[in-house]
Design brief:
This protein has about 230 residues and is α+β, with helices and mostly antiparallel strands. It has one domain. The protein is built from 7 helices and 9 strands, in the order ββββααααβαβββααβ.
Length: about 230
């Protein structure tokens, strides 16, 4: 069943990109551990495909362990590498086009119900911070050029772009700083259940704390067409 359109009262989101994210777990120190977590930060979730193992040259020793974890044959790995050469995908395994991510998922990870196609999006003021000359962008590729197109809203997150990938506020236990002032609610995906407007406040609260990044409130949407939404 197609996702319902976004309600007009909801924020206008701009998509940063799409990830094939494997469900991880909340950190041990979190009060809801070992609950599951679905985030675009590789600090807690494995993001597919692993470009080091299946695309970049000079990392042959990484291929076999990745194949053992994913069940990819030699032929499938070679085919995956060939497909990636025709796609726009960044160093953190972020797809620019949803159709590319869907194709990779359906072709190579169809048996993995713990790998989900998600997008991360934010509103215009935060999009501008991630523009090529924005203060939160440490790379030269253009981000946030497309409005959110469908998907099921799973919850919100707070991410910060470091060199080559995103950190999450959970990396440094910053949820404790937020919870000391505001009631922070997590859902069954390990995502923030509070409204996006509240998450904006939380992101400002933890600026200059933890990782050396600009913390950004993001909305996480699921795009698992034809796949179960729960594992």
């Amino acid at each position: 069943m197609p996702a319902p359109p976004l309600h007009s009262s909801q924020p206008a989101y701009y998509t940063i990109g799409y990830y094939l994210a494997e469900c991880g777990h909340l950190p041990d120190y979190h009060p809801q551990a070992p609950g599951r977590l679905l985030t675009a930060s590789h600090c807690f979730c494995r993001l597919h495909p692993d470009l080091i193992a299946c695309y970049w040259n000079g990392w042959e020793t990484k291929k076999e362990p990745y194949q053992q974890k994913t069940g990819l044959s030699d032929e499938a790995l070679a085919s995956l590498s060939q497909h990636l050469s025709t796609m726009e995908i960044d160093s953190d395994s972020r797809f620019e086009r949803r159709a590319d991510a869907q194709h990779i998922r359906q072709t190579y990870f169809t048996q993995r119900n713990d790998i989900h196609l998600i997008s991360i999006s934010l509103t215009a003021p935060y999009r501008d911070k991630l523009s090529p000359h924005g203060p939160a962008n440490h790379i030269t590729k253009t981000l946030c050029t497309q409005k959110l197109d469908g998907g099921r809203h799973l919850g919100n997150d707070i991410l910060g772009w470091d060199i080559g990938s995103f950190h999450t506020y959970l990396c440094n236990g910053l949820e404790q700083d937020i919870a000391a002032i505001h009631p922070l609610r997590l859902n069954t995906w390990g995502l923030i259940d509070n409204p996006y407007e509240e998450v904006e406040t939380y992101a400002e609260l933890i600026q200059n704390q933890g990782e050396p990044v600009i913390w950004l409130p993001v909305a996480v949407h699921l795009h698992d067409a034809g796949y179960p939404a729960e594992t």
